[in-house]
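Q: I have 410 residues here and want to know how they pack in 3D. Can you give me a structure?
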Amino acid sequence: MNDLVTITGIAAGGDGVGRLADGRAVFVPRTAPGDRIKLRDGSLKLSRNFGRAAVGEVAGAGPGRVAPPCPHYTQDRCGGCQLQHLEYDAQLTAKRAIVGDALRRIGKLKVEDPEVVEALEEWRYRAKISMDVKSSVGLHPYDRPNFVFPLADCHITDFRLMALWRELRAHLDLLPPGLTRLTLRLDREGRRHVIAEASGEPWLDAERLRRELPGSESQEVICWWRPVDGAARVMAGPATGFPATAFEQVNPEMGILARRWAVEQLGEVRGRTVWDLYGGIGDTAALLAERGANVVSVDADESAIGWARTRHRDAVSARFIAGRAEDVLPSLPVPHAVVVNPPRAGLHWDVTLRLTAEPVNRLVYVSCDPATLARDLHRLNVNYQIATVRAFDLFPQTAHVETVVVMEAA
């Protein structure tokens, strides 16, 4: 296979896409629009309508191709990032197209590629990193998901967490037996959390490890042990109540921008009931309460709801409920507006049915997955029309994108 393939765009997931001589699409990781490439011998895997292959040689580079700065991206084929080989403007163009294509192709919606709000920081923005443990502690190559390479540095993760990782690497023997996953997390007060997931005995050396780490005297480092399929608990350091395993945006600053814009699109909500479904630790609910809304925030994670109640105890017009959205909807007061921020799987079918059967004045959908967003919008389109769409780049150097869609009752 020596024919040149020209890459014409970036597909969802980050692979470049071009056309084979027979007209079938071919998806090739680590390629850029405008690249002319030769496929690696023996790498092409064909299905009925498309193929997948690896780059053998870049015969001609596209205008947006750059040299990736992270050694892991090239040497270890790290799967944590997909777009480091693209200049930032080209990444934004690709993400606009990914969202627009999903809404048109999957959602059957007549929309243009949305505006995208660029990131405040292109690097060092992640407030969380999770590493798997096999023969080493690190991340996966994109083409070898069962292999783990040892991590030296992650260029998209906050310097403070990488400084913690450098110290931890010298004391891996003090981590719990049966370690399967290690997560480092930065909370909003600047404390650093080490969450060790393990299948073995409890973490008896946690306090000893903590004493070896800079910042332990100032209570800055907190060590958690999480048994497989169990709840995490603090083993060393102050128990602040922070839910270390609850969902929170890995890019907090950009997450705030997206939430604020989403809430603003609801218009005047003072004195009106607003649902905040899949509300997590209550950030959106707090913004709504500031605007005078009577907020009902629902999330299935009890630890997230507990933290929300603690952090937002002054938000007297906000009520936080631990439970699955689809289960609690029948008991909630009739809303004027609704904000939904579901996980990647999208809305539960029962939630979609309720929203279409009893349309609200305004519905704002915050999504981290364009495909499930498009599917849900197609279903909601029965009784809603799209007012506006805006994307936010919460995840530079990756193919992920956050999208906020504002819908009005038709």
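Q: Anything worth noting?
A: Residues 273 and 294 are 5 Å apart (CA to CA). The two ends are 52 Å apart (CA to CA).
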